[in-house]
């Protein structure tokens, strides 16, 4: 069943992409001969007007075949309805329409998740410690019950009700006895940072990453790391980050049974503390990557959260936050790609193929419709970004050809285009092979 869901997700995103090409091509009166989802031998097809619509056996892509003109390069007129008969900017819009449709779809899906309600994890509003200068006001174990006369139920509620550059009033239960009112002036120049009280329980375990490979599972209690006691999640984080060993030993308790598991952390320089992908929660809910701004060691586990709840928005806020989230997501992905090209060695741990997509799809669908739609939005954005890379055979490569033609008033010679296309095909095949290799090494090494 999960395989069928994966095929549906991939197939739907490809369909939307190709639909973009198709609709803009038809808008400019280009004859579309074939609209295919997938490659290779067809599973079934049907004909409508001049277009053959088909589903092919290899569901890792798709294409539309437009009418091509066999005219020589030196000719200035082309057969009506052919792709070549259109101006350079019309051809540009046709090739860009696929990625643009993926971006539009991603935005719609993210807006839908906010309307339906995103499931969030959070902590009780109990303070572990506060950063300077706010440690003068808050103590370990403080339970914050109100902020500015608004009831607080979760740790994120504290941040939602803050007022910058004003005096904020906190109602705090201290030592399970007294209730105190604290007046705290919060300046925009000095971040207000409180850390929640956490446990040493493992929440999610990322498939394919070191902890998963070693056998760590959701619900495990990490008692020690390399003989250092770990009573809180911060203890776990610090023990992993500061370890100088190639591997670390986790002493865990699972269902009353104690065992030791050796884990080999990975270094991932793509991680950055401010990469929140447009998340609407406080930074303390996004703390499961075990990372620091200096050493990006990851083992692929997230902490256990005390609370799970669903939060939704009205139409106006859903649209506003949906657009912002999409823009942030695009920015962060381009930032990650730039980092990859600066340091090609990072490709090893940051490229996944169909097997990875299958696992991620399975995880997303288990969390409900909202998580599934958000996952589809993320993949749709990645599909857009990959297709816009300036590599021949990709949409971005074709656009560069047409842009050259628009600037210099002449197309790139056919022989050069063919040569560049062959390079593009080689790059595409290499990426596909590497993605499969990466999946195999990630899941079966």
Would you mind describing this structure in some detail?
- By secondary structure, this protein is α+β, with helices and mostly antiparallel strands.
- It folds into three domains: 2-117 and 378-444, no CATH class; 124-196, Pdz3 Domain; 202-309, PDZ domain (Pdz3 Domain).
- Helix content is 42%, strand content 24%.
- It has eleven helices and 18 strands.
- It has helices spanning 2-27, 88-116, 155-160, 210-214, 233-242, 315-342, 347-350, 354-366, 369-387, 395-408, 414-444, and strands at 32-48, 51-66, 118-122, 127-130, 143-147, 150-151, 166-174, 178-186, 194-196, 202-205, 221-225, 228-229, 248-254, 257-263, 266-267, 297-298, 301-303, 307-311.
- The strands form seven sheets. It has a four-stranded antiparallel sheet with strand order 6-5-7-8. Strands 12-11-13-14 form a four-stranded antiparallel sheet. The protein has a two-stranded antiparallel sheet with strand order 1-2.
- The longest helix is centred in the C-terminal third of the chain and has 31 residues, at 414-444.
- The two termini are 25 Å apart.
- Residues 272-295 have low confidence and may be disordered.
